[in-house]
Design brief:
Elements (H helix, E strand, L loop, with lengths): L1 H14 L2 H10 L6 H11 L5 H17 L13 H6 L3 H14 L5 E4 L5 H7 L4 E5 L2 H13 L6 E5 L2 H6 L8 E4 L4 E2 L2 E2 L10 H10 L3 E5 L13 E7 L2 E8 L8 E7 L4 E6 L14 E5 L1 H6 L2 H8 L2 E2 L7 E3 L12 E11 L2 H11 L1 E8 L6 H4 L10 E10 L2 E9 L1
Parallel strand pairs: 1-2, 1-4, 2-3, 4-7, 8-10, 16-17
Antiparallel strand pairs: 5-6, 7-9, 8-9, 10-11, 12-14, 12-15, 13-14, 15-18, 17-18
Helix pairs in contact: 2-4, 3-4, 6-7
Amino acid sequence: MAEKQTQAESVVDFLLSAHAAETLALLAQRELASHNQLSLLTALRVTFSAEQAADLLTLATTRQRAAAKFPDAARLFFTPEALEQATAWPIAQQRAAHLCSHAPPGPVLDLGCGIGGDTLALARQRPVIAYESDPLRLRFAQANAAALGLAGQVEFRLADWTVELTADRLPPAAAAFADPARRAEGRRLFGLEQMIPPLSLLLRLQARIPALAVKVAPGVADNEIPPGCAVEFISHERTCKEAILWFGPLAEGGGRRASVYDGAGWHTIEASLVAPPLGVLAVGHYLHEPDPAVIRAGPFAELCAMLDAHLFDPQIAYLVGPRRAEGNGAAPFVQSFLIEEIHPFSLKILNRRLQALGVGQVELKRRGPPIEPESLRPRLKLVDGGRPAVAILTRRGDARLLLLARRV
């Protein structure tokens, strides 16, 4: 184990060297697609060992992939696994802004900082004490803070923060952000008490540092959310990425909300959990599909009021009504479709209507029925060069429905 760690440390030493930096800058200008990698490795091996060449190409490729998450990715250090786990920069910034605007003055603990996605965002606003048990990720986090001119804002500590928490050795701070492990030995952990550390232990920390934020899985069960905390479901690129439990002054009185990033900025909607209205499903109405984070938060009554809409089934998270989503504040929270036809669902009816309407490209959507849309695709009869359409498979009560629509 010690030999393996020493070898890994030498890899980091090399990647942080000036010689590696020059080569990485050159690689950043190259096309790093898989079909080019053999020739690139061959060229790199003229100057570097085979292992160093592979490490350089891996980091350069990971930086290009990281550009979707981090605007400064070309200057930062990642491993493929750490990038996968790192918080996207817009999410980290939004979270840091909320935490730092509501917590009392003072430093923030970042518990489980990884390669520093959240650390960097927090450090732009507050001094940070960042814990990480993996020495290699910690060194990359340090390098990332230095690359962005934030090294003086962060005190990095190589330690298992869960052990420090259990032993009550974490330092005093104005606020804390915790990212508990949700995997162990390759398997996913479900439930707030299965996380490492469990929520009950984090609540002991919250008794000492009231302003606590805990990152949890977006599928967190409602009955596990402690009373008095707020839960925020966060959507980025139309995916519900995570949920945050906000405690103490960060909770703003509790409740549920969804925050959606649409490229232009963040949009938040609060959920009262009041039952939304029910109504009919009609041709010529707009069907509004809420963002996944909005579905998890549940502000259906609020969206219905904004859209002059209703549900056509209490168990189906589709809103329908006569109004478009633009101009009333609802657009960031939904995708909208104009309903053109409504039929009982069958493959025969679907194919007959696709042919009659001259549909050559079909987007399949589902909510309710157990049918997997992609299992239908090979059996669809499309018209070469035909127009696009949307087929929505859903239900009302026990009746399975086929809605033909177009995306608005």
